[in-house]
Design a protein that fits this description.
The complex is a heterodimer of chains A (about 850) and B (about 160). Chain A contains 31 helices and 35 strands. Chain A has about 850 residues and is an alpha+beta fold. In chain A, the strands form seven sheets. In chain A, strands 10-14-15-13-12-11 form a six-stranded mixed beta sheet. A six-stranded mixed beta sheet of chain A has the order 27-19-20-30-29-28. In chain A, strands 21-25-26-24-23-22 form a six-stranded mixed beta sheet. In chain A, helix 1 packs across helix 12. The longest helix of chain A is centred in the N-terminal third of the chain and has 34 residues. The radius of gyration of chain A is 35 Å and the shape is flat. Chain B is an alpha+beta fold. Chain B has a single domain, classed as OB fold (Dihydrolipoamide Acetyltransferase, E2P), CATH 2.40.50.180. Chain B has four helices and eleven strands; from the N terminus they run H-E-E-E-E-E-H-E-E-E-E-H-E-E-H. In chain B, the strands form two sheets. Chain B has a six-stranded mixed beta sheet with strand order 8-1-2-11-10-9, with no helix packed on it. In chain B, strands 3-6-7-5-4 form a five-stranded mixed beta sheet. Classes of the chains: A alpha+beta (about 850), B alpha+beta (about 160). At the A-B interface, helix 9, strand 17 and strand 18 of A face strand 4 and strand 5 of B.
């Protein structure tokens, strides 16, 4: 008796598995048939599926299910035989049937019975429908906005997604070979995977053992073992692979329902649905996929009339693409909707104090777009409404990152948005970096690893500096918080070492350096969970077994960052507040200090420096009569600072390899300045100034209590580009506001003004300029013509409205000489106009304008004084 | 399997069965043999910084990573002599395996259910929390270790 019961149990669970599969296929097919209502093969397949479900329930005695599916079957047979036309209300009714069936199945799964809900209403509606005369105007189905879908079938006929069709055919083919397949429980596969993982570890141990002795027989055997193990590992991994279609199958339904409820027209195209992923990964991407697709439908694709006005077809297109690439799976979700307005995101980030204006300007559009993934951002309703995206994107990101994946976002306003996801094929075996600390070995997952830094020599300790006891490292001009693994884990440190090894890690959006005792090598490791006794330790992500058979702990990068305090939110806030405070002071400057030739200490405003790089001598190529290197897919012209400052002096012999290059950047234009050594970054008030007549230098000042020469970047850049420039400068002591949208231009102008003895304040847009004007009295404003957001005219009119501002002279700086004489510039309210990078002309003009103001800057200027 | 374990547990205190015995300092302990997966000599151990003090570290049990609990520290006894290496008793329950580091392994004993008694009230609270009862053997008392509690570090210690 009991045996019979158990057999029944098995049959029912088999029935459930099969029915769920059938239902997800139905979802997809029904949405598909809505587009191609005349597709007889598809209709037949739908009929068959329902028929199968009905047949099995009858056999197992599930009467409710049988009743529902029977009515649906009747309807479908009428459709199949051409007695009835397919229309959206009918589809909705059938989809409702599918949902009801699913509910009953869930009840059967949970309790073994069909549950109390008999779905009599639905059955009745289905029955009525089947008996009603076949007409188009159908009222018995649920209400659906007709405009959304009514004309869709014809529209879609031409745009059949090719790939999608193909997978249909594949499905048919695979059912033909169904006899060659067997169903295997997931538990068994998981067990196999565990065993293979252990075999991989044993193999590693044997290989290490083999390497220690010279036994030809052992050597041959272990090689063989190695090969077989690898193949077995691959094979078993394959058994756990599932096509991404298992996740995607539900999406056509999601898109259809969204489109209907939003009154939009959306076509879903799926490419690469047969791309395979490990079971665990499939499970993990399910929710993020649905979320992203919903997001694209909701915020990405516009309403039909909006699209029509933008000159796009009324029907939006959502494309899903999946493909294998380099041991990873790339998934793309792209829409042809409104896209995201980068400028808005940037502005919001500044308003919400996520970025300082300076930082925001330095970030590329892509980096700014990725701010959308920040938790604070997605909650910002204003951003969502304005730019169209954001809610819950941080959740998507954290889900993907949890499985070692990466999310990236690309968008073009008006053209659409693409989200790219890169995820590993499997979670069980990952690459990791083995490091040692306090005599123990640890593994850092490769996905969190950005770079390795080795600080050698006497100065190694000096490289890591302390701000109120917090260690930091200057990494290419920005401060990187540093943690010591020995301290985080409470291990003994080995005393003063000759060199300091540091790994730069990324956790969420932030980076930090982790000092370790030693860096070993990278290995494929099998991740094993920790026992419950150790689950509470946030610093570990698990453990693994090394080649020598010993256990090593896998570090949890986020946990390490948090427990060492380098990633704590409050710390972050404080650091940001500090920088903001400084930038608002305006007078303090950040300077990059470097050495070239006989000049021991040279300074460049850090705002002009894009990156510090090293290039090997072999990378130098010649183009246009100068030296260049290929850099980030661009040609970067090089100029040797030594040659500029000491023309005719012998070149360094031998030439240093690699060369240190300071990359100066202004939008599309970059110049690489070869220097002998990067010394330091100083944040200081430049106090004493002295003009210099030497070519390439503006003059000298005191930075960090040492005399430092200031580079004239105009002249340095001239060496690569033939710009016409003059030299010299006249000094006085006045406050000048430099308002220009380009940080590079501001920096150059500032450098010129600084050396002439002006106190310089900067503004990158109108708001900043107004703020600076409000903060202190100014002697003059130097402005570019295109001050964001609406041009410099807005600044002028704002200044004219306030009595204390309206007499401050404004000098316009233009990019081209043609605009200089234009009378409308003067009419616009500027007092003078000069070419942007002519320092002498600018200084002379300012001198003229500012000296006309006889009274000190603090006093209001008498009206009409300057004319 | 789960059902079997539950039944065993309910009977553990009363029924006369086989016990795997071991020593921690001068205490004589027993664990139901059905809970013991294996007994091992001292294994290479990987220490876990920041872990609770009673966790000696992790051992590799044929590819399975098992947490080793030092029973001396678990019972708040003085540490072993420096030159004595502990033995591993790997015990298993529904949640997985754990290893108990003990001083010495004794015999497997058949005990008579009738000789069972609950643990005496005046027992050191550190030990009493982990002991399910006592079998009065000839010339010796066998303390029945609650392996579940011994491995569970979250239980109220010293309570």
């Amino acid at each position: 008796m009991e045996n019979v019961l158990i057999q029944d149990q098995e049959i029912i669970s088999e029935f459930l598995v099969e029915s769920y599969e059938n239902l997800s296929r139905l979802d997809r097919e029904l949405v598909e048939i809505e587009k191609h209502p005349k597709d007889a093969a598809l209709l037949a397949s739908i009929f068959r599926t329902i028929h199968t479900v009905k047949g099995t329930c009858g056999f197992l005695g599930f009467s409710t299910l049988e009743k529902i599916t029977h009515q649906a079957e009747t309807l479908l047979s009428q459709l199949r035989d051409g007695h009835r036309e397919l229309n959206p209300p009918l589809i909705s009714l059938i989809l409702e049937t599918v949902d009801a069936t699913r509910k009953v199945l869930a009840a059967i799964e949970a309790t073994g019975k069909e549950g109390p809900d008999l779905f009599e209403d639905l059955t009745e509606r289905l029955r009525l429908k089947a008996q009603s005369p076949a007409t188009f105007a159908d009222r018995s189905g649920p209400d659906i906005p007709a405009g959304a879908t009514a004309q869709r079938p014809e529209l879609h006929a031409a745009s059949v997604p090719v790939e999608y069709r193909k997978s249909e055919e594949d499905a048919v083919k695979s059912s033909a070979v169904a006899d060659a397949n067997i169903r295997v429980g997931v538990g068994l596969l998981d067990k196999l995977m565990d065993l293979v993982s252990e075999l991989v570890l044993t193999r590693n141990q044997i290989l290490q053992f083999n390497a220690e002795r010279e036994d030809p027989a052992l050597n041959a055997t272990s090689q063989q073992l190695n090969l077989i193990t690898s193949e077995l590992q691959e094979g078993v991994m394959k058994t756990r692979m599932q096509p991404i279609a298992t996740v995607w199958n539900q999406l056509p339904r999601v898109v259809r329902d969204m489109a209907v409820s939003l009154g939009k027209q959306i076509e879903l195209e799926m490419d690469g649905a047969d791309t395979e992923l490990d079971r665990t990964v499939i499970e993990a991407i399910k929710d993020p996929m649905v979320h992203l697709v919903r997001n694209a439908c909701d915020h990405g694709i516009e309403l039909p009339d909006v699209r029509a006005r933008a000159g796009k077809p009324p029907q939006g297109k959502l494309t899903l693409r999946a493909l294998h690439e380099g041991g990873q799976v790339n998934i793309e979700i792209s829409d042809d909707g409104a896209g995201i307005d980068v400028a808005r995101v940037r502005q919001k980030a500044i308003e919400r104090r996520i970025l300082t204006p300076e930082r925001a300007e330095k970030l590329s559009d892509r980096e700014v777009l990725n701010l959308i993934f920040m938790p604070g951002f997605s909650l910002a309703k204003a951003v969502t409404n304005l730019s169209g995206r954001g809610v819950g994107m941080d959740v998507v990101k954290s889900h993907i990152e949890k499985i070692g994946g990466v999310v990236d976002l690309f968008s073009r306003p008006g053209e659409g948005t693409t989200v790219k996801i890169k995820i590993p094929l499997t979670l069980a075996i990952i690459p990791g970096l083995v490091i040692t600390s306090g005599g123990e070995r640890f593994v850092i997952p490769q996905v969190s690893l950005l770079e390795l830094i080795r600080l050698e020599g006497d100065s190694s300790e000096k490289h890591i500096e302390h701000i109120q006891g917090t260690p930091v490292y200057r990494r290419r001009g920005s401060l990187l918080p540093v943690a010591y693994l020995n301290q985080v884990l409470g291990l003994k440190s080995p005393g003063s070492a000759e060199a300091v090894s540091m790994v730069v890690l990324q956790a969420e959006d932030r980076q930090f350096g982790l000092v370790v005792d030693g860096i070993n090598d990278t290995q494929e490791i099998v991740v094993k969970p920790l026992g419950k006794q150790l689950k509470g330790l946030s610093v570990y992500a698990g453990a693994t077994i090394m080649g020598d058979g010993r256990v090593a702990l896998i570090l949890d990068v986020l946990g390490i960052g948090q427990s060492s305090g380098v990633l704590s939110e409050s710390h972050h806030e404080a650091a940001r507040a500090a920088t903001e405070h400084k930038t608002q002071e305006g007078i303090e400057q950040r300077l990059l200090l470097l050495r070239a030739g006989s000049f021991e200490r040279l300074a460049v405003p850090l705002s002009l420096v894009a990156r510090l790089e090293e290039f090997p001598q072999s990378a130098i190529e010649h183009a246009g009569g100068g030296e260049v290197v290929q850099y980030r897919n661009r040609i970067l012209p090089l100029v040797s600072l030594r040659a500029v400052l000491e023309p005719g002096a012998p070149e360094q012999d031998p030439a240093p390899d690699p060369m240190h290059v300071v990359v100066l950047n202004d939008g599309d234009r970059s110049v690489g300045m070869i220097v002998d050594q990067i010394l330091d970054i100083a944040e200081d008030v430049v106090t004493v100034r002295q003009k210099s007549s030497r070519k390439g230098l503006l003059g000298s000042g005191v930075v960090g209590r040492r005399v430092t020469d200031f580079l004239d970047l105009n002249q340095v850049i001239q060496a690569t580009e033939s710009w016409v420039r003059g030299t010299g400068g006249i000094g006085n002591d006045k406050r000048i506001l430099v308002a220009d949208d380009s940080a590079f231009s501001r920096g150059l102008i500032r450098a010129g003004l600084d050396m002439a003895g002006y106190q310089v304040l900067e503004a990158g847009n109108l708001d900043e300029a107004i703020r600076q004007l409000e903060k202190q009295p100014l002697n003059a404003v130097v402005a570019g013509l295109d001050l964001p957001p609406n041009g410099t005219a807005a600044l002028l009119s704002a200044m004219h409205r306030r009595s204390e501002w309206k007499d401050i002279p404004v000098l316009a700086l233009t990019d081209s000489t043609e605009r200089m004489q234009a009378p409308d510039v003067r009419r616009a309210g500027f007092q003078d106009c000069q070419p942007k990078f002519d320092r002498v002309a600018m200084l002379e003009s300012l001198d003229r304008l500012a000296s006309a103001l006889s009274s000190p800057a603090v006093e209001p200027v008498p009206v009409g004084d300057k004319r | 399997m789960a059902a079997t374990n539950a039944t065993l547990k309910s009977q553990a205190a009363q029924a006369g069965r086989q016990f795997c015995t071991f020593f921690v300092a001068d205490l004589f302990f027993g664990v139901d043999v059905l809970h013991v997966q294996e007994v091992l000599r001292f294994q290479q151990i990987t220490h876990v910084p920041q872990a609770p003090a009673v966790v000696e570290g992790l051992i590799n049990l044929r590819g399975q990573i098992v947490t080793a609990i030092d029973m001396r520290r678990r019972l708040q006894l003085p540490p072993r002599d420096g030159d004595r290496t502990p033995m591993n008793i790997v015990v298993r329950n529904e949640e997985g395996a754990g290893s108990l580091l003990v001083d010495e392994i004794g015999d497997v004993l058949d005990v008579d259910a009738a000789s069972w008694e609950p643990s005496p009230e005046n027992l050191d609270p550190n030990a009493r929390d982990l002991i399910r009862g006592v079998y009065k053997l000839k010339g010796q008392l066998l303390l029945v270790l609650d392996t579940e509690r011994a491995l569970d570090l979250a239980v109220r210690r010293g309570a």
